[in-house]
Amino acid sequence: MKHFKLHIILVALLFASTAIAQQTPAPKQTQAYSIEGATAHLGNGKIIENSLIMFENGKIVFVGSTPMKVARIGEIVDARGKHIYPGFIAPNSTLGLVEIDAVRATKDNDEVGSMNPHIRSIIAYNTESKIVESMRPNGVLMAQITPRGGRISGTSSIVQLDAWNWEDAIIKADDGIHLNWPNPFSRGRWWLGEPATLKANKDYNSQVEELTSYFTESKAYNTGRKTPSHLPFEALQGLIDGTKKLYVHVSNEKGITDAINFSKKNNVKSIVIVGGYEADLVMDLLKQHDVPVLLQRVHSTPNNNDEDYDAPFKLANKLVEAGVLVGLENAGQMERMNTRNLPFLAGTCAAYGLSKEDALSLITLNTAKILGIDDKVGSLEVGKDATFFISEGDALDMRTNKLTNAYIQGREISLESHQTKLYKRYSKKYGNQ
Description:
Blueprint: H1 2-17, E1 33-36, E2 39-41, E3 47-48, E4 51-56, E5 59-65, E6 75-78, E7 83-86, E8 88-93, H2 130-133, E9 140-145, E10 152-160, H3 166-169, E11 170-180, E12 185-187, E13 198-200, H4 204-222, H5 231-241, E14 245-250, H6 253-265, E15 271-275, H7 283-288, E16 293-295, H8 311-321, E17 326-328, H9 335-338, H10 342-351, H11 356-361, H12 365-371, E18 388-391, E19 403-408, E20 411-412, H13 418-430
Parallel strand pairs: 1-6, 2-7, 8-9, 11-14, 14-15, 15-16, 16-17
Antiparallel strand pairs: 1-4, 2-3, 4-5, 7-18, 9-10, 10-11, 12-13, 18-19, 19-20
């Protein structure tokens, strides 16, 4: 009898946990729209006041200003006094791979083993994640789903955040392989009484040599008979033929320098630095080899005691002024929930040197270029996907980032989530207090 009651309780909890499910994905666009009157922030540094944007069949067909004598199509949306932005893109994200950190069964972001270039994160992506749906009310409409762990974590893919399943969600499958570069230095373990100062990693050279040998073996395999089949080596071929990018997760000056030299030595066609805390120390090298940077979360404190308190805030401006292509990523502690704050990271960069439109590009067109999807998304341009949103105010300011409408590939999506439902529920309980 005791076991029977326990089963009843477990079933009740199951139903309770699924009572607030993700919003049903929006159906395919069947009606054309003309949005007029808003200030359009194109994502490429340009603004159109009193704009007119028209889209049908999921694509933008016109971008201009309202005074132009152009016949409107479909339903006309009056957006006077509001702002239109391209959908924000969150790179290097584990959205949909982990739901509850404390529950191992909901975590699928880290595979067993050290060298896993063949592991595809996309097949583990959960489109019904409550965390994923909570990104959309802040304008984050796309993400790069990225694995973690090991030396070579696996392969990422880029998705839009309103889909029935991972196949529907894909914008670009298997866009790149993620490599965690060895750290040349480490800090003393204070909990063991060691001084918390930097010291050389005595295993650094051997760890880099291990990577070199692995890439050499993969090249020999891919130029040979390819028997027996070796899936990890086959996955690395995409780095050589240019169908995949190599995303190197590294933050220090020496590591960035060595990673770039490593990629050139191994004929890797395209490399992206992820993290890049000390990227300003090697700006000439980055520019010389046309290496873009996805900067680590700028809402952080300086790594070193002798740095300015606002060093992370100013870093994007330094790199942009030097001609480096820069995007923003938000990995780190509580990264999935913090992904919604991506626009406010860009807002901080604007407050510390960048213009508002250049800061916007960090999470729109720049990131789209870095990920290789700028032919589809990242800016409000004719021929691109109609993936954008309308906000009551400045979307980079948390006080005025208030979405009224959002579209993904022309489909008007729901901005409801379990959090907005709870907000409305308790607003009624406590009124306007």
